[in-house]
Every structure is written in structure tokens, then in C-alpha cells.
Amino acid sequence: xxxxxxxxxxxxxxxxxxDAAALAAYRSDPVQAxxxxxxxxxxxxxxxxxxxxxxxVRFAQPGSWLQVxxxxxxxxxxxxxxxxxxxxxxxxxxxxxxxxDAQGRGFATEAxxxxxxxxxxxxGLHRVTAVCDTRNDRSVALxxxxxxxxxxxxxxxxxxxxxxxxxxxxAVLAEEWRDEKPGVP
Length: 185
Description:
Elements: E1 5-6, E2 11-14, H1 20-27, H2 30-33, H3 44-54, E3 65-72, E4 75-84, E5 91-98, H4 107-121, E6 127-133, H5 137-145, E7 149-160, E8 163-173
Parallel strand pairs: 5-6
Antiparallel strand pairs: 1-2, 2-3, 3-4, 4-5, 6-8, 7-8
Helix pairs in contact: 1-3
């Protein structure tokens, strides 16, 4: 199994069957799941099925979601979801989840920057987007920190977990992207 990227602190790689327990654990955290599509608790069997479903999916494969494993010090700490548009493979959407005990150390920023860089530099994409609940202050800050700009505010546009929610849409174009590495202006 080949890694997608190795950064200063992380390995970004395909999910493996041995990741099921860690994936289920951080997806079972109600705080982490609040703005996500799944419900808690998140069973290990559900995690195993998701990992099995992704086994044949390549990075940047149009039309398919892929959870890219974020590994630190040999441990799965989260994932970056990537879906290249099946109708227009020059565009992609990303999302992310990080285990609570791994937050606040720059791992999500490092992982998201690496994935966006791969999409632009190695796969020739034109545009990358992300959607988040307007109440998710940490995700809003992350998207802005990596250089994405807010393009839209959809008011009460999504029925989510029993309530109307509002969403921000963020995007960055290949021509705007600057792969920020430590020590590079």
C-alpha cells in the first residue's frame, strides 16, 4: 500500500482494515459527529464496511468519496475526505475529521494543505471546495487558515439532524493556491 503523501508530522495513506477501531472511536465522539453525516455511536462493523468500500477507490478518482487516513506516530488520528466531481473532474470537494485528542496541534492544517496540494499539483484540478456548518467555528478557521475563501452563506438550506442549518461554502482555485511549507515565503 503506497502512501499518498508524507508531511513533516503525518503520513497520508489509504485506510486499512486495521484502522476500523480507531475510525469508529473518533466517529463515535458526539462532539466530532455533530456537524457530520453519521450518527453516534459509530460501530466498528460500520467502519470496516466503509474501509472495504474504499478499497478499490483511487485518490482523485472522479465520482467517488475517499477517506484519506491521517496517521501520526503510527496511529490513525483522523481523515480527509476527497471527492472529485464525476461530471467535471477538474473540481473536487474536501472534508475532514480529526480525533479530539489530536486537535490543536496543526495536524488538520498540515493534512488538508497536503491533500489540496496533491489535487492541484499531481492531478491538475482547477478548483477545490469545502462546505461546513456555520456554527463549526474550528472548521471555518481551518478552511480560512489553509487559504480557502468563503464564497457563499446558505441560510437554513439543509435539514440536518432534526433542524434547519446554515452552511458556508469555501473554495480555492489552482491559480490562487500557494503550497505553504515551513520556511518558504
